[in-house]
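hi! just following up on the protien thing from before. the input was this:
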Amino acid sequence: MAEKRAPVIDGLQYANWSEKIFRQMRQGGVDAVHVTIAYHENFRETVLNIEQWNRWFEQFPELIFQGRWASDVEQAIATERTAIFFGFQNPSPIEDDIGLVEIVHTLGARFMQLSYNNQSLLATGCYEHNDPGITRMGKQVIKEMNRVGLVVDMSHSADRSTLEAIEISQRPIAITHANPASWHPALRNKASNVLEALAESGGMLGFSFYPHHLAEGSNCTLQSFCEMAARTAEVMGVDQIGIGSDLCQDQPDSVVEWMRVGRWSKEIDYGEGSAEKPGFPPQPDWFTDNRSFPGLRKGLLDAGFSQQDADKLLGGNWLNFFRNNFDKPQVCQ
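and the predicted 3d structure came back as:
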């Protein structure tokens, strides 16, 4: 059994999963990862993705297992494995049926974005020109997500929708993978007032390593990233930030089309004003896969983070968030 230590948790990955990547997680000391199992899939298609994960859990039990509760992170550390927590980047798996919120939670989902880049039945995506905020259905779904313990994720949502979700939700929400827009003005990076409201509500921000969300893109330096993290800690507090790498390791470029387009358009759409281009850009050389986490820790220490605060950012804060949010459904009074 491994000795007790601070956890390493990644708040979002969408890799092309394989034994190689599972072993790299262990080599990098990664104890838990929130993995995307749906972009535009409906309920039945999402179940098929869960079936694939069940096969991986069966094939590689010494490397990974399904995470459902915060205590599973501690179990991962003790058994030197990685706990896999399911999440959706779009509410499409619940279709137009609020009853499916509890069903997907029962199947293991722990995060759900209320919108991807487009308008959904629940909220507005960050690529839309107008943001009317959380919809009538969205308000009801947030209430149900709060009840069952499914985290509201607003990573791809527009600002008004995000601020309203923070206000409506009775539990802290998460922005699992984004950076401050003040550091790099990508469409999906978040405005200062959004980050301030997120912190005041007890929510979490996961910093993204996706090159389109980094200052200088693929050429972003570790020093620049860690200095940004330090400035954000001054604004939000060191207890409200973590990592959401948005690592898309080994994915073919065709997957970008699925992420951006799904089935709603015949044309490739990257959002008005977006600098994104077809294909995946190269990762910065300081974070190419899960084995890069130890180097990230050194960068945080070099940027002035204490060992304790670096431990919080690399996983301790996510674990506390899990403890406060991943519980069994509550009975409505």
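The first strand starts at residue 9 and ends at 13.
The longest helix spans residues 307-325.
cheers
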